[in-house]
Amino acid sequence: MASSSAAANLEDVPSVDLMTELLRRFKCSSKPDKRLILIGPPGSGKGTQSPIIKDEYCLCHLATGDMLRAAVAAKTPLGIKAKEAMDAGQLVSDDLVVGIIDEAIKKPSCQKGFILDGFPRTVVQAEKLDEMLEKKGVKVDKVLNFAIDDAILEERITGRWIHPSSGRTYHTKFAPPRVPGVDDVTGEPLIQRKDDTSAVLKSRLEAFHKQTEPVIDYYSKKGIVANLAAKKPPKEVTAEVEKVLSS
Fold it and tell me: 160 an active-site residue?
């Protein structure tokens, strides 16, 4: 039944969209499969690079937080279990998250592989992920480590200011407003997100180093970690990523 309703839905899709998608799939069919993990502290540029990598290599982007919320909203069996844990104020178990990743990578959009962002955060999660992939006869190909000094991150992040109603963003050093603290267009005051203060950043970075550095060691032993100089401008980081992934 599902396939006939899907076919009916396709009838309503404009031809240009169908052709674009067919061309995309055709172009993608010759791309090598890639299963990638992106690791890096907040502000290291993962969010800038992942859409570029996703499009270039025809991968699906798996952000575990979004996937959990989607599974809960869709009331999938795993989503129901995850909601029970959240409602009870507990952390969602590693097995559940790996199960949700397992479900997600069956989708056609993940056929050529995936980018995992925000997971694994611990060595135990990395081991469980490897186990699950091994059962499918695949493995993680590369771990892209967005390496950057904490001091540079502090400058990047604590310099960010935002105009709340329009979402326009400024940076005291890299993209300052014409008048300090004021939006160029409306003249209204700019605010700083509460996550962008140095105190919050410091605790996030401490947690990141404590939890995630062992994960980098775990994958380094497998010889699949590529260290990127994440302090470079985005275009240079993109070029570095392309070099790593084409080798």
Answer: yes
